[in-house]
Amino acid sequence: MVTRTVDLRSDTVTKPTEAMRAAMANAEVDDDVLGYDPTASRLETEMAKIMGKEAALFVPSGTMGNLISVLVHCDIRGSEVILGHNSHIHIYENGGISTLGGVHPRTVPNNKDGTMDINLIEAAIRDPRGGLVYPTTRLICLENSQANCGGRCLSVEYTDRVGELAKKHGLKLHIDGARIFNAAVALGVPVHRLVQAADSVSVCLSKGLGAPVGSVIVGSKSFIAKARILRKTLGGGMRQVGILCAAALVALQENVGKLEDDHKKAKTLAEGLNQIKGLRVDVAAVETNIIYLDMLDDSKFTAENLSKSLEQHGVLVMLEGPFSIRIVLHHQISASDVQYTLSCFQQALTGVQDENGN
Protein backbone atom coordinates (compact mmCIF):
# COMPACT_ATOMS: atom_id res chain seq x y z
CA MET A 1 0.00 0.00 0.00
CA VAL A 2 1.33 3.42 -1.06
CA THR A 3 1.74 5.70 1.95
CA ARG A 4 3.58 8.54 0.23
CA THR A 5 3.08 10.31 -3.10
CA VAL A 6 5.78 12.30 -4.88
CA ASP A 7 4.16 13.68 -8.03
CA LEU A 8 6.84 14.63 -10.55
CA ARG A 9 4.71 14.38 -13.71
CA SER A 10 4.61 18.15 -14.16
CA ASP A 11 4.50 21.43 -12.28
CA THR A 12 0.84 21.61 -13.34
CA VAL A 13 -0.12 19.04 -10.69
CA THR A 14 0.25 21.33 -7.67
CA LYS A 15 -2.73 21.78 -5.36
CA PRO A 16 -3.94 25.23 -4.28
CA THR A 17 -2.35 26.30 -1.01
CA GLU A 18 -4.44 27.29 2.00
CA ALA A 19 -3.65 30.94 1.25
CA MET A 20 -4.92 30.49 -2.32
CA ARG A 21 -8.10 28.79 -1.15
CA ALA A 22 -8.75 31.58 1.35
CA ALA A 23 -8.15 34.23 -1.31
CA MET A 24 -10.50 32.45 -3.70
CA ALA A 25 -13.21 32.16 -1.06
CA ASN A 26 -12.98 35.85 -0.22
CA ALA A 27 -12.35 37.26 -3.71
CA GLU A 28 -14.19 40.40 -4.71
CA VAL A 29 -15.85 39.59 -8.03
CA ASP A 30 -18.07 40.94 -10.78
CA ASP A 31 -18.74 40.17 -14.45
CA ASP A 32 -15.38 40.08 -16.24
CA VAL A 33 -16.90 39.72 -19.72
CA LEU A 34 -18.40 43.15 -19.09
CA GLY A 35 -15.01 44.28 -17.76
CA TYR A 36 -16.02 44.82 -14.14
CA ASP A 37 -14.31 42.08 -12.15
CA PRO A 38 -11.98 43.97 -9.74
CA THR A 39 -9.77 40.99 -8.87
CA ALA A 40 -9.20 40.15 -12.54
CA SER A 41 -8.31 43.79 -13.15
CA ARG A 42 -5.84 43.72 -10.25
CA LEU A 43 -4.12 40.63 -11.62
CA GLU A 44 -3.94 42.03 -15.14
CA THR A 45 -2.59 45.38 -13.93
CA GLU A 46 0.01 43.67 -11.75
CA MET A 47 1.12 41.30 -14.48
CA ALA A 48 1.44 44.07 -17.07
CA LYS A 49 3.61 46.01 -14.62
CA ILE A 50 5.83 43.02 -13.79
CA MET A 51 6.30 42.16 -17.46
CA GLY A 52 6.94 45.77 -18.51
CA LYS A 53 4.03 45.91 -20.97
CA GLU A 54 1.08 48.29 -21.33
CA ALA A 55 -1.75 45.84 -20.68
CA ALA A 56 -2.64 42.25 -19.86
CA LEU A 57 -5.51 39.79 -20.21
CA PHE A 58 -6.40 36.69 -18.17
CA VAL A 59 -7.18 33.61 -20.29
CA PRO A 60 -8.22 30.09 -19.24
CA SER A 61 -5.13 28.31 -20.58
CA GLY A 62 -1.69 28.73 -22.09
CA THR A 63 -2.88 27.12 -25.31
CA MET A 64 -5.58 29.77 -25.66
CA GLY A 65 -3.09 32.50 -24.74
CA ASN A 66 -0.69 31.44 -27.48
CA LEU A 67 -3.51 30.96 -30.00
CA ILE A 68 -4.94 34.41 -29.34
CA SER A 69 -1.50 36.00 -29.57
CA VAL A 70 -0.71 34.35 -32.89
CA LEU A 71 -4.12 35.27 -34.31
CA VAL A 72 -3.80 38.91 -33.28
CA HIS A 73 -0.43 39.21 -35.01
CA CYS A 74 -1.45 37.08 -38.01
CA ASP A 75 -4.90 38.52 -38.64
CA ILE A 76 -4.89 37.65 -42.35
CA ARG A 77 -5.47 34.00 -43.27
CA GLY A 78 -2.46 32.52 -45.03
CA SER A 79 -0.01 34.33 -42.77
CA GLU A 80 3.07 32.37 -41.70
CA VAL A 81 4.73 32.08 -38.30
CA ILE A 82 8.33 30.97 -37.78
CA LEU A 83 8.78 28.80 -34.70
CA GLY A 84 10.92 25.99 -33.29
CA HIS A 85 10.34 22.45 -34.51
CA ASN A 86 10.30 21.33 -30.87
CA SER A 87 8.10 24.13 -29.55
CA HIS A 88 4.96 23.70 -27.49
CA ILE A 89 2.87 25.73 -29.95
CA HIS A 90 3.91 23.49 -32.82
CA ILE A 91 3.60 20.11 -31.07
CA TYR A 92 1.14 20.25 -28.19
CA GLU A 93 -1.57 22.77 -29.09
CA ASN A 94 -3.67 20.74 -31.53
CA GLY A 95 -2.46 22.71 -34.53
CA GLY A 96 -4.88 25.44 -33.47
CA ILE A 97 -3.09 28.25 -35.27
CA SER A 98 -3.78 26.39 -38.53
CA THR A 99 -7.18 24.83 -37.87
CA LEU A 100 -8.74 27.93 -36.33
CA GLY A 101 -6.61 30.76 -37.69
CA GLY A 102 -5.46 29.65 -41.10
CA VAL A 103 -1.89 30.42 -40.01
CA HIS A 104 0.89 28.37 -41.60
CA PRO A 105 3.74 27.20 -39.34
CA ARG A 106 7.28 27.26 -40.72
CA THR A 107 9.62 25.41 -38.40
CA VAL A 108 13.29 26.03 -37.73
CA PRO A 109 15.31 23.40 -35.81
CA ASN A 110 15.66 23.99 -32.10
CA ASN A 111 19.21 23.54 -30.86
CA LYS A 112 19.80 21.54 -27.68
CA ASP A 113 19.86 24.80 -25.70
CA GLY A 114 16.41 25.79 -26.96
CA THR A 115 17.58 28.47 -29.37
CA MET A 116 17.12 28.58 -33.12
CA ASP A 117 20.07 29.76 -35.20
CA ILE A 118 19.52 33.41 -36.10
CA ASN A 119 20.67 32.87 -39.68
CA LEU A 120 18.17 30.02 -40.09
CA ILE A 121 15.34 32.19 -38.75
CA GLU A 122 16.24 34.88 -41.24
CA ALA A 123 16.50 32.37 -44.07
CA ALA A 124 12.98 31.16 -43.23
CA ILE A 125 11.45 34.62 -43.71
CA ARG A 126 9.58 34.66 -47.02
CA ASP A 127 10.72 37.03 -49.74
CA PRO A 128 7.86 39.53 -50.19
CA ARG A 129 8.47 39.42 -53.93
CA GLY A 130 7.15 35.88 -53.88
CA GLY A 131 3.81 36.89 -52.43
CA LEU A 132 1.98 35.40 -55.38
CA VAL A 133 2.99 31.88 -54.34
CA TYR A 134 4.34 32.07 -50.76
CA PRO A 135 2.54 32.59 -47.44
CA THR A 136 3.40 35.96 -45.88
CA THR A 137 5.72 35.82 -42.86
CA ARG A 138 4.27 37.96 -40.07
CA LEU A 139 5.50 36.52 -36.77
CA ILE A 140 8.38 34.80 -34.98
CA CYS A 141 7.68 32.74 -31.85
CA LEU A 142 10.19 31.82 -29.13
CA GLU A 143 9.64 29.63 -26.05
CA ASN A 144 11.34 30.48 -22.75
CA SER A 145 12.13 28.32 -20.93
CA GLN A 146 12.12 25.71 -23.71
CA ALA A 147 10.36 22.71 -22.20
CA ASN A 148 11.15 20.01 -24.75
CA CYS A 149 14.82 20.97 -24.62
CA GLY A 150 14.82 20.33 -20.88
CA GLY A 151 13.75 23.70 -19.53
CA ARG A 152 16.67 25.52 -21.12
CA CYS A 153 16.73 29.32 -20.87
CA LEU A 154 16.99 31.79 -23.74
CA SER A 155 19.23 34.69 -22.74
CA VAL A 156 18.43 38.39 -22.93
CA GLU A 157 21.10 38.79 -25.60
CA TYR A 158 19.64 36.07 -27.79
CA THR A 159 16.07 37.32 -27.37
CA ASP A 160 17.14 40.86 -28.22
CA ARG A 161 18.85 39.63 -31.38
CA VAL A 162 15.69 37.86 -32.50
CA GLY A 163 13.72 41.01 -31.70
CA GLU A 164 16.08 43.10 -33.82
CA LEU A 165 15.71 40.62 -36.68
CA ALA A 166 11.93 40.80 -36.43
CA LYS A 167 11.96 44.60 -36.56
CA LYS A 168 14.38 44.57 -39.51
CA HIS A 169 11.86 42.59 -41.52
CA GLY A 170 8.69 44.23 -40.19
CA LEU A 171 7.64 41.18 -38.17
CA LYS A 172 6.25 40.73 -34.65
CA LEU A 173 7.83 38.65 -31.88
CA HIS A 174 5.75 36.52 -29.51
CA ILE A 175 7.25 34.65 -26.56
CA ASP A 176 5.55 31.55 -25.18
CA GLY A 177 6.58 32.26 -21.61
CA ALA A 178 4.79 29.38 -19.95
CA ARG A 179 7.78 29.19 -17.56
CA ILE A 180 9.24 32.65 -18.15
CA PHE A 181 9.62 33.26 -14.41
CA ASN A 182 11.70 30.08 -14.13
CA ALA A 183 13.92 31.38 -16.92
CA ALA A 184 14.26 34.83 -15.35
CA VAL A 185 15.19 33.38 -11.97
CA ALA A 186 17.70 30.94 -13.48
CA LEU A 187 19.34 33.70 -15.54
CA GLY A 188 19.28 36.23 -12.69
CA VAL A 189 17.52 38.74 -14.92
CA PRO A 190 14.36 40.78 -14.18
CA VAL A 191 11.52 39.22 -16.11
CA HIS A 192 10.57 42.51 -17.79
CA ARG A 193 14.06 42.78 -19.24
CA LEU A 194 13.95 39.21 -20.50
CA VAL A 195 10.84 39.96 -22.59
CA GLN A 196 11.62 43.55 -23.50
CA ALA A 197 12.05 42.73 -27.19
CA ALA A 198 8.72 40.88 -27.44
CA ASP A 199 5.50 42.36 -28.79
CA SER A 200 3.51 39.85 -26.75
CA VAL A 201 4.12 37.22 -24.09
CA SER A 202 1.95 34.42 -22.69
CA VAL A 203 2.63 33.60 -19.04
CA CYS A 204 1.30 30.40 -17.47
CA LEU A 205 0.03 30.76 -13.92
CA SER A 206 -0.48 27.04 -13.30
CA LYS A 207 3.01 25.72 -14.05
CA GLY A 208 6.02 26.97 -12.07
CA LEU A 209 3.94 29.58 -10.25
CA GLY A 210 1.59 26.93 -8.87
CA ALA A 211 -1.80 28.61 -9.33
CA PRO A 212 -4.67 26.21 -10.09
CA VAL A 213 -5.87 27.67 -13.39
CA GLY A 214 -5.04 30.08 -16.16
CA SER A 215 -2.54 32.17 -18.05
CA VAL A 216 -2.06 35.86 -18.75
CA ILE A 217 -1.06 37.44 -22.06
CA VAL A 218 0.64 40.82 -22.11
CA GLY A 219 1.37 43.39 -24.79
CA SER A 220 0.38 46.84 -25.98
CA LYS A 221 -3.06 48.30 -25.26
CA SER A 222 -4.09 47.82 -28.89
CA PHE A 223 -2.88 44.19 -28.83
CA ILE A 224 -4.87 43.41 -25.68
CA ALA A 225 -7.99 45.13 -27.07
CA LYS A 226 -7.91 42.75 -30.05
CA ALA A 227 -7.02 39.83 -27.79
CA ARG A 228 -10.09 40.49 -25.62
CA ILE A 229 -12.36 40.12 -28.65
CA LEU A 230 -10.66 36.89 -29.71
CA ARG A 231 -10.92 35.52 -26.17
CA LYS A 232 -14.68 35.95 -26.40
CA THR A 233 -14.76 34.40 -29.88
CA LEU A 234 -12.91 31.32 -28.61
CA GLY A 235 -15.20 30.88 -25.62
CA GLY A 236 -12.70 32.12 -23.07
CA GLY A 237 -14.73 34.97 -21.64
CA MET A 238 -15.76 34.06 -18.10
CA ARG A 239 -17.92 35.88 -15.58
CA GLN A 240 -16.80 35.96 -11.91
CA VAL A 241 -13.27 34.97 -12.89
CA GLY A 242 -11.81 36.87 -9.94
CA ILE A 243 -12.15 33.63 -7.97
CA LEU A 244 -9.36 32.19 -10.15
CA CYS A 245 -7.39 35.42 -10.40
CA ALA A 246 -7.26 35.67 -6.59
CA ALA A 247 -5.27 32.43 -6.43
CA ALA A 248 -2.98 33.69 -9.17
CA LEU A 249 -2.24 36.85 -7.19
CA VAL A 250 -1.22 34.72 -4.22
CA ALA A 251 1.01 32.65 -6.52
CA LEU A 252 2.75 35.79 -7.77
CA GLN A 253 3.31 37.02 -4.22
CA GLU A 254 4.40 33.74 -2.63
CA ASN A 255 5.80 31.36 -5.24
CA VAL A 256 8.12 33.33 -7.50
CA GLY A 257 10.58 33.39 -4.61
CA LYS A 258 10.45 29.58 -4.38
CA LEU A 259 11.55 28.94 -7.98
CA GLU A 260 15.26 29.12 -7.20
CA ASP A 261 14.82 26.37 -4.61
CA ASP A 262 12.89 24.29 -7.16
CA HIS A 263 15.85 24.60 -9.53
CA LYS A 264 18.33 23.58 -6.82
CA LYS A 265 16.28 20.50 -5.96
CA ALA A 266 16.07 19.62 -9.66
CA LYS A 267 19.85 19.82 -9.93
CA THR A 268 20.29 17.66 -6.81
CA LEU A 269 17.87 15.08 -8.18
CA ALA A 270 19.55 15.13 -11.61
CA GLU A 271 23.00 14.58 -10.09
CA GLY A 272 21.72 11.71 -7.98
CA LEU A 273 19.92 10.03 -10.86
CA ASN A 274 22.99 10.30 -13.06
CA GLN A 275 24.95 8.30 -10.48
CA ILE A 276 22.53 5.36 -10.59
CA LYS A 277 23.67 2.54 -12.84
CA GLY A 278 21.48 2.22 -15.92
CA LEU A 279 20.44 5.90 -16.07
CA ARG A 280 21.87 8.87 -17.90
CA VAL A 281 21.08 12.53 -17.24
CA ASP A 282 22.75 15.53 -18.88
CA VAL A 283 23.20 17.32 -15.56
CA ALA A 284 24.70 20.45 -17.16
CA ALA A 285 21.51 20.87 -19.20
CA VAL A 286 19.32 21.07 -16.07
CA GLU A 287 18.95 24.85 -15.77
CA THR A 288 15.46 25.14 -14.28
CA ASN A 289 12.95 22.61 -12.92
CA ILE A 290 12.83 20.02 -15.75
CA ILE A 291 14.89 16.82 -15.99
CA TYR A 292 15.04 14.34 -18.86
CA LEU A 293 16.59 10.96 -18.13
CA ASP A 294 17.39 8.09 -20.46
CA MET A 295 17.67 4.41 -19.73
CA LEU A 296 20.95 2.89 -20.89
CA ASP A 297 21.08 -0.37 -22.83
CA ASP A 298 22.34 -2.32 -19.83
CA SER A 299 19.54 -1.19 -17.53
CA LYS A 300 17.14 -3.89 -18.86
CA PHE A 301 14.30 -1.46 -18.18
CA THR A 302 11.92 0.42 -20.44
CA ALA A 303 10.49 3.76 -19.39
CA GLU A 304 7.09 2.15 -18.98
CA ASN A 305 8.08 -0.67 -16.65
CA LEU A 306 10.36 1.63 -14.64
CA SER A 307 7.49 4.08 -14.31
CA LYS A 308 5.17 1.32 -13.09
CA SER A 309 7.75 0.18 -10.55
CA LEU A 310 8.14 3.74 -9.25
CA GLU A 311 4.37 4.17 -9.08
CA GLN A 312 4.14 1.25 -6.67
CA HIS A 313 6.17 3.40 -4.28
CA GLY A 314 4.09 6.53 -4.95
CA VAL A 315 6.59 8.24 -7.29
CA LEU A 316 4.85 9.51 -10.42
CA VAL A 317 6.79 10.49 -13.57
CA MET A 318 5.99 11.26 -17.23
CA LEU A 319 6.92 8.94 -20.09
CA GLU A 320 8.68 10.70 -22.97
CA GLY A 321 9.58 7.70 -25.09
CA PRO A 322 10.32 3.98 -24.86
CA PHE A 323 13.51 4.67 -22.91
CA SER A 324 13.05 8.26 -21.73
CA ILE A 325 11.33 9.86 -18.74
CA ARG A 326 10.57 13.48 -17.87
CA ILE A 327 10.56 14.78 -14.31
CA VAL A 328 9.41 18.26 -13.24
CA LEU A 329 10.01 19.81 -9.83
CA HIS A 330 7.65 22.29 -8.19
CA HIS A 331 7.14 24.08 -4.88
CA GLN A 332 5.28 21.14 -3.33
CA ILE A 333 8.27 18.80 -3.68
CA SER A 334 10.50 18.82 -0.60
CA ALA A 335 14.18 17.96 -0.18
CA SER A 336 12.99 14.80 1.57
CA ASP A 337 10.88 13.93 -1.48
CA VAL A 338 13.98 14.25 -3.66
CA GLN A 339 15.92 11.80 -1.49
CA TYR A 340 12.96 9.40 -1.36
CA THR A 341 12.69 9.53 -5.16
CA LEU A 342 16.38 8.71 -5.55
CA SER A 343 15.95 5.77 -3.18
CA CYS A 344 12.99 4.48 -5.19
CA PHE A 345 14.89 4.73 -8.49
CA GLN A 346 17.84 2.95 -6.88
CA GLN A 347 15.66 0.16 -5.57
CA ALA A 348 13.76 -0.24 -8.87
CA LEU A 349 16.92 -0.47 -10.94
CA THR A 350 19.20 -2.43 -8.62
CA GLY A 351 16.93 -3.97 -6.01
CA VAL A 352 18.98 -2.21 -3.33
CA GLN A 353 17.46 0.37 -1.00
CA ASP A 354 19.63 3.07 0.57
CA GLU A 355 19.28 4.68 3.96
CA ASN A 356 16.83 7.30 2.64
CA GLY A 357 14.25 4.72 1.59
CA ASN A 358 11.17 3.72 3.51
TrEMBL record:
Keywords: Pyridoxal phosphate
Domain of life (superkingdom): Eukaryota
Pfam families named in the record: Beta_elim_lyase
Domain Aromatic amino acid beta-eliminating lyase/threonine aldolase: 7-294
Classification via Gene3D superfamilies: Aspartate Aminotransferase, domain 1 (3.90.1150.10), Type I PLP-dependent aspartate aminotransferase-like (Major domain) (3.40.640.10)
Cofactor(s) this protein requires: pyridoxal 5'-phosphate
InterPro entries: ArAA_b-elim_lyase/Thr_aldolase (IPR001597), Low_specificity_L-TA-like (IPR023603), PyrdxlP-dep_Trfase (IPR015424), PyrdxlP-dep_Trfase_major (IPR015421), PyrdxlP-dep_Trfase_small (IPR015422)
Keyword match Nucleotidyltransferase: no
PANTHER family from the UniProt entry: L-THREONINE ALDOLASE, L-THREONINE ALDOLASE-RELATED
Family, similarity comment: Belongs to the threonine aldolase family.
NCBIfam families, alphabetized: GntG_guanitoxin (NF041359), PRK10534.1 (NF007825)
Name recorded for this polypeptide: Aromatic amino acid beta-eliminating lyase/threonine aldolase domain-containing protein
Lineage, top ranks: Eukaryota, Viridiplantae, Streptophyta, Embryophyta, Tracheophyta
